Amino acid sequence: MQAFVTVVHIMVCIILVLVVLLQAGKGANMGAVFGGSSQTIFGSSGPGTFLGKMTTVIAIVFMLTSLTLSYSSSHRSSSIMNKASRPAAQVPVAPAPAAPVLPTPPGDNKTASAVPEKAAPAPAGQKAPAGPAK
User: Fold this and answer.
1) Which is it for the CA torsion 46, 49, 52, 58, positive or negative?
2) Surface-to-core class of residue 113, CB atoms within 10 Å of its CB (0-12 exposed, 13-18 middle, 19+ buried)
3) Where are the domains of the chain?
């Protein structure tokens, strides 16, 4: 179905360009003022009515095929879009090795905190205990 509409759309595009190029511009009748006969093949009124109506019909068909193709392409996902929407396969990563724990020499108390701990707050109605004795 989409291939058929695409072929019709391309044909309509080519015909639309040709019909627009066949039409005379706004200043084409200026040559008739100086004695030239302007487009007597299509009659005295020129090709305006026939080519104008043909342009209108072809333009409507062009718009309908454009809307049909855009609707069908938006509701039909391509294989590229399917691949992009799928998450990539997760490769398991090995955990980093833990740092070795070195034994501390005896008598090394640098790990103890040098900052005195704060006393816990006293329950309501009681006096807070005094800080650590020096």
Assistant:
1) negative
2) exposed
3) 2-25+40-76
Biggest CA pair distance of the chain: 124
Secondary structure (3-state) at 47: coil
Taking the alpha carbons at both ends of the chain, their separation in whole angstroms is 94
Which segments of the chain have a pLDDT < 70?
26-48, 77-89, 107-134
Of 130, 110, 133, 127, nearest in space to 119 by CA: 130
Q: What is the pLDDT of residue 118?
A: 61
Helices (H) and strands (E) counted in the chain, each on its own, are 4, 0
CA–CA distances in Å: residue 20 to residues 10, 27, 54, 70, 100: 16, 15, 10, 24, 82
Dihedrals φ, ψ of 93, to 5°? Answer: -105, 130
